[in-house]
Amino acid sequence: MINFIPLGGANDIGASCYYLNIEGTGIILDSGTHPRKFGVDSLPQFDFIKDMNVDVALISHAHQDHIDSLPYLVQRHPYIRIVTTPQTRAVAEITLHNSVNILKEQLKDEITIRAYTHEEIDLLIQSIEWRAYEEQFTIDGYRHSSKESIKASFHDAGHILGSAGTLVEHKGRSIFYTGDINLDKQSLLSGAQLPKQKVDIVILECTHGATDSTHLPSRLEEQLRFTTCANKILNRDGSILIPVFALGKMQEMLSTIWRLMQKGSLATTDIYTGGVGRKISTVYDKNRYTVPYNDTDLILSDIPQKDLYDVDHLDDLMRQQCIVLAGSGMIIENTLSYKLTQRWLSQPKFGIFTVGYMDPETPGYRVRHSHKGSLIQLTNASEPQNVSCDVEQFRFSAHSNREGILEIVQRLNPSTVILVHGEHGSIDWMGYSIMKKFPHIKVHGAEIGKQIILFE
């Protein structure tokens, strides 16, 4: 028997974690936290599998919502085997150590959960096995009841460095978990490489399922609009704040901006970056020959950048012209992008550019949907502010649009699709569209804790 239980990230984006049991072998697909929840509430619901076999964790990539609860999973199952791509292992060493510092502050008054330590992360990273793209490996658990082994392999997901779709095969049957996936070429990465064979079950991310992309501009058109809007601000001696995720979005936007400056399309100005994002950029640089990369001659660390963390006072940035790439991407309260946004909003010459997904319950979403001359309240507890700066939203997505998601289904031609990693509107649109376009495919909308029997 093969069964599937979502523990997080079912009809939501956050705390992605899914359990597969294949004839006694327990497999965890991702183990993330929810970016806008805290403590126990941010974790997957591990209690649904507390009496089940848990043998191996296969991690798709190193974003917080896919890996940050891994230390808590290890605390519950200390002998679990962990496998990632080598790039995800390298990035995870940086991001998980950074999470230690964040959790210490968030959980200082918690009694039900403690922050994991740097020492625990060191041990966890040492225990991670890595496998290259398309390298097949065996993942049988201690109580595997079949004579035939379970095989697994990672396939480039085109989302961020090291991101992977996970193919699991047993007795001629196959399950493909997309993770976060992007078929389209980005500034640095070349796009996903799907398994070449037909797949029986697809566990499918639906991030942009609710977004009608037929009227959206192409990446090139968006770059041209970005250049026009940025030059308007820079030419009036203003500065631009771009909230970014330290992993993936910072590297993509840094390379995009630098190329535009090198071509002479974008006015040359100081670029500020810093912190974890800079460390991750060095991992990108070291791996530019080991993954499908668009320009191996581009070295992110060689791009002239000033360090945000060398600025004595954030208000000093208000007195110069620059472009600032600051974490967090959703402008979460108490982060650098949040503190800068509070200052940027009052500056008529300045601009805030949003470039990625914004959870509807985050300050970033409120900023994205504000406009010059409006009133904004960044959080329910904060004071309302006038929006004096320009606010522009751009789409430089690291996820497939909904046509791309349907293309994945068409190319893999499964008998069953399980929809995950999407809000209700995205799940509903994808489910309806798949059933209409591919009537032979059975579709499940995942629900946390609800078991789906895949094969008897």
Topology at a glance:
Blueprint: E1 2-8, E2 17-22, E3 25-29, E4 56-58, H1 64-67, H2 70-76, E5 81-84, H3 86-106, H4 118-127, E6 129-130, E7 137-138, E8 151-156, E9 164-170, E10 173-177, E11 201-205, H5 219-234, E12 240-243, H6 249-263, E13 270-273, H7 276-286, E14 306-307, E15 322-326, H8 336-344, E16 351-354, H9 363-368, E17 375-376, E18 385-386, E19 390-393, H10 402-412, E20 416-420, H11 424-437, E21 442-445, E22 452-455
Parallel strand pairs: 3-4, 4-5, 5-6, 10-11, 11-20, 12-15, 12-16, 13-14, 13-15, 16-19, 20-21
Antiparallel strand pairs: 1-2, 1-22, 2-3, 7-8, 8-9, 9-10, 17-18
Helix pairs in contact: 3-4, 3-7
SS-derived structural category: alpha/beta
User: Could you say which overall geometry the principal axes of the C-alpha atoms support?
Assistant: globular
Q: Which range best describes the helical content: under 10%, 10-25%, 25-40%, 40-55%, 55-70% or over 70%?
A: 25-40%
Q: Numbering strands along the chain, what is their spatial order in the largest sheet?
A: 6-5-4-3-2-1-22
Tally of structural domains:
2
CATH top level assignment of the largest domain:
Alpha Beta
Largest sheet: 7 strands, mixed
> What fraction strand?
15-25%
How far apart, in Å, are the first and last alpha carbons? Answer: 5 Å
Q: Regarding quaternary structure, how should these chains be classified?
A: single chain
Round the mean pLDDT to the nearest integer and report it: 95
Number of continuous helical runs: 11
Say which CATH homologous superfamily of the largest domain is assigned. Ribonuclease Z/Hydroxyacylglutathione hydrolase-like
Q: What Rg do the Cα atoms give?
A: 22 Å
Extended strand count? 22
In the CATH hierarchy, the third-tier topology of the largest domain is known as Metallo-beta-lactamase, Chain A
